[in-house]
Amino acid sequence: MTPKAKKLTQADMPEADFAFYGLVWAGTTLTERVDRALTKAHDLPVSWFEVMLWLATSPEPVPASVLGNSTMLSRSQVSRVVDALQGRGLVARTPSARDARSVEVSLTEEGRRVFAEADATRREALAPVFTDLLDAQDLAALGAVWRKLKAVKGKVAAP
């Protein structure tokens, strides 16, 4: 008779391992949930939404290179996403006023409208599994953790 496999619990792992697993699990689970909701409602993958989010929060057009450094996408992925968004009329590329060799990207009016609708969908998808469960103190703690982890990006050599 094969023994029944037991589920690992927090007590079975060192605290740092459990915390890391939790970050990975939460990121994957929440991203998949948002991706499904955005794709179903707006035909907008979460990677496209991420680029639109950065553009929507910027008061002026964003250099394409800055999008590559800001998002969790590679520069080539950002380029493909911007191409797709431009093909749908959601973003515009314009020559940079500061650097003739580069282009800047901004949301079009249609892009702003689609982003607002998609952002409402994202919030609705996250509410029952994230924002409705966490209070202001929880969110502030997560923000503090994220800022600490992000602060060392590029300062610590990859293994």
Automatic annotation (TrEMBL):
PROSITE patterns: HTH_MARR_2 (PS50995). InterPro entries: HTH_MarR-typ, MarR/SlyA-like, WH-like_DNA-bd_sf, WH_DNA-bd_sf. Residues 1-151 form the HTH marR-type domain. It comes from the Bacteria. PANTHER family: HTH-TYPE TRANSCRIPTIONAL REPRESSOR YETL, TRANSCRIPTIONAL REGULATOR, MARR FAMILY. This is MarR family transcriptional regulator. It comes from Streptomyces bambusae.
